[in-house]
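Figure 2 data, in text form.
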Amino acid sequence: MVYGAGGAGWRPRLVALAVILAVLTGCAGKPDRRPAAPFVPTATAAHRAIVRMVTSTTVIPTPTAVPATPTLAPTETPPALAPLVTPTAPPPAIDLARAHPNELGEIPILEYHLIADQDGRWSRSWQHFQDDLDRLYRLGYRTVSLQDVIDDRIDVPAGTSPVVLTFDDSSPGQFTFVEQDGKLVPDPHCAVGILDAFVREHPDFGEHATFFVLPAAEPPHNLFGQNQYQKAKLDYLIAHGMDIGNHTYWHQNLATVSDAEVERQIGQAVQVIGTLEPGYEVDLFALPEGAWPRHKELAYQGNWNGIRYNNRAVLLVGASPASSPDRIGFDPLALPRIQAIPRQLDLWLGALDHGVHQRYVSDGDPNRVTFPIGLADRLKARPGEEKLRSPDPNYEVYRLR
């Protein structure tokens, strides 16, 4: 049969057929570039001396099977591959007028001691500790690690505020194991168990806290008590993203002892924790009773029997909220805290929303700092910062890194 004038119409048909065959062959030869199934880590299953001051007074979906990929013959040249990643639209810009960011504001670092059955000067009942977490959540606070504050990598959703939870003296009420169905789990009435349960209900709250421990305090308060589970408890805290800090060997008031004893108290605590957790860096330190050694620099760094310590942060007892790490005057080596007792909590959580004290409110991006234009003179200038064009004339925006 003849197609077209002069019988030449068959050529376009053959060319078209050849193109189709080439495309099919090329598609069959593409290697499988799908990412491997995600790795799902398994959690490692993993209370100290009350200070003399205290005692005295998803299911992963099954991947769909795909046909085996044909192998190219040695003489074949694989066709050029088009990118398989489809570009996604950038996230919508933050509505600054709605989020009201102020990343030069203040951050509450809460200081807990005993978690007990009743409130006291140095204790918080476990029921009221639950209430504290619920109150913080409703007020728009989300937990962050102390390390992230020091590193200026505060990552909470836009419009929310960071809060740091700290616990001094490693008492049993902070962390006790109980057996449940043949497994060790945190007591639901201890701080760790209460925080675990709250985060299961409110995952966006975050499970961040720092425990300033005492390795050699009188039992049952040495490393939370339950001596046979000391390492398991430290394992558990680390596996859940919490930090272990230094509170000296047995809660020694450093203002009353020699320089050598200061170094021993801090260095020996580092040694014990390092023995239980090899390779773990103990570089957060809380001053017992808020007392500085006579030579202040020994709270920052020192050496005991070849055990060197170099603290990134030194925490005080009580006082006030801490400054933003982006604000002039921020000093990680003298961080104030708020004692987590009713009068102090009510005072400061209220003050942070009114008057001179203004709380840190995030813009949602840990790599930027955003604040109202009236606070520009409080920004701590650092190399590498870049001023960005702000989408709202009422705010200034800088890129940190």
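Caption note: Residues 103-366 form a domain with the TIM Barrel fold (CATH 3.20.20.370).
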